[in-house]
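User: I'm putting together notes for a lab meeting next week and I want to include a structural view of one of the chains we've been expressing. I don't have a solved structure, so I'd like a prediction I can at least talk through. The sequence is below, exactly as it appears in our construct file.
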Amino acid sequence: MTHLQIRFKPLDTLFFRDGSPFNREELQANVNTIFPPSPTTLAGAIRAAWARAMGWDGKGRGGNWAECCKERLGASVTLPETITFNGPYLFRNNEPVFPVPAHVLGVTPLDPQKQKPSDLVLLAPGREMETDLGKILLPVKPSSGTVEARKALISEWWVSACGLRQILRGDPPGRDTLMHQSKLWTVEQRIGNFRKEGRVTGLMALYSPQHIRLQQGVELAMFSSGLPDIDIEKIISRPAVTGGEARACWLTIEEGGIEEYLQIGSPSSSMRYTLVALTPTQVDSLGNIAIKGRQPVSYCNQRPLMLGGWDCNKPRELRPCLRPGSVLFMETEHETAAGKIISYGEKTQWGFGRFVTGIWK
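Assistant: Thanks for the context. Below is the predicted structure for the 361-residue chain, given as structure tokens.
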């Protein structure tokens, strides 16, 4: 089965709305965007691009999707068993970059445009402590060389594939492998105006969405397998609608998978291992996590990411997700190799729930 790397190069800005209400004739002073977007958003853009190349007329209700695409691309929110997506990811200068895992701490610079974090360390589970969640192992800093000014870097900093491989081996990343979020994208505030028939507007018609502008050399990417074999030229010869407000991207398609960027050079394995989230992972309303029936001994993560979306003509409910960069600390009776991609949770076929294994010391 062919594994494809599909990259999105925007024509201009992009818009991926979050789950906030967005109704006409209501105050919309600041319509937030989610970036990187939900896996289903880019998977849907890819399916639509393939469908147009297969003869789809581009219409929703009343269109010809059922006749030309349903059997090979699935119907609505269902996929054929043969198709799998993995992503989204960000690429910078043809190499993937990842959110700095949540167990990486450092002293952040005053000017992130010119400087990078220093005194980098990795958290690891400490001794068992009694908390309101019961007896758990809380992550702690290394006992030597503690710098109180250190804080988690996950919210604003990204790391190259080389730096992530260092982290997966249980070592802090090199400073030169880190980059600030502003090196990847910026947020632009736009003003829109809803017009009725006859080019007439009215009260509460203005809205202000946040658009994303990718920096030079930065692209979105999805990996996929099992897509129908068709003439690729029909897909890359015209832009694909991506996200909201009819934003569009040029697509580039080549063979390959994310695994090739995360291969650990020297053999590394341990019975104490980490799972670093690469894509959003759906959890239940209480945030419970169990990997193959085994609970993490500890974890580092941020507040859940609430993702919803649209099912053709109606909104989907918001679901809590672990954010990319979340870290689960696991123990097992057998050694687990670092750099292995595993899937967990719901909707993994759409790209949710991808983790890469590492070790913790």
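A couple of points you could mention at the meeting. The mean pLDDT is 87. The CA atoms of residues 25 and 203 lie 7 Å apart.

User: Perfect, that's what I needed.
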